[in-house]
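Supplementary Methods S3. Complex input for the manganese (II) ion-bound model.
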Amino acid sequence: MKVQLAEDVRRAVVRGAPVVALESTIIAHGMPYPQNLDMAREVEDVVRKNGAIPATIAIIDGVLRAGLADGELEHFAKTGTTIPKVSTRDIPYIVARKVTGATTVASTMRLAAMAGIAVFATGGIGGAHREADTTFDISNDLHEFAISNVAVVTAGAKAILDLPLTLEILETNGVPVVGFATDEFPAFYSRASGIPVPMRLDTAAEVAAMMKAKWNLGLKGGIVVANPIPGADEIPSAEITPHITRALAEAKDQGIAGKNVTPFLLKRITEITAGRSLTANIALVMNNARVATEIAVAYAKG
Ligand code: PSU
Ligand code: MN
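Predicted complex, serialized as structure tokens:
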């Protein structure tokens, strides 16, 4: 096995029992300490309480890993952004140098697929950044969805991105985008975006059936399960938009580029909103973990 599985993850994968993959970039780069550690632990609890085994994915000392010990979660949370952010392109570099890296949605999908894990809960996927028509800054996440057979539960995509362009690229890559009990593609902090999703399903069992339909037909690649943030936790678009606009302008002024853009924007929006965006981010991660677990349970029922 290319990926080293924690014992409980290994047993579940072998038995075909439900497992939910989780990413490590959200811990090291997506949130400040100590909230990132609380989030990393709590999201695993949510998966366990709902009947699946959590498998947080990362690369540690050059080893591809699924299922981390608590001390390892703590290491990622405390060390934070000095741990390299590993997208798919970075995997061989990190492995060959035998160092530690935090996996993004793209590389987590790849490792989950290698490990035989079909469901993954994240906060929000990467996408086409605004002005991607000139910067070409389009997340590797969108490309990975064309390759790895994993269903990813996401609160849509962050409104720091160009959402219509993101959906166009997913379509080009042949990736189904399913609104989970919604007709709109959610905008991360906000439930609504005004942008319709191409298809809608209302239950975990229906999503599991679609996963089977896709992969049994030999259709390669992932599925985006777009799950809106709960109403009680959302920041309405009118409220968050000016903060996003401000953070984007600061990123441009400071010449932030490449893989630093997303972490910079998340951090600035947290500062500008005095932590409100962080609270919303954590709430939507938990909600995604709950739905992902329901899907993993339905998928395992066969
Ligand atoms: N969404 C979040 N928090 C995060 C990310 C997304 O709410 O930390 C991370 C994910 O790991 C995602 C990555 O894969 O940002 C996308 O980065 P980029 O835009 O550089 O591809
Ligand atoms: Mn990018």
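Residues 4-300 form a domain with the Indigoidine synthase fold fold (CATH 3.40.1790.10). The chain is about 45% helix and 15% strand.
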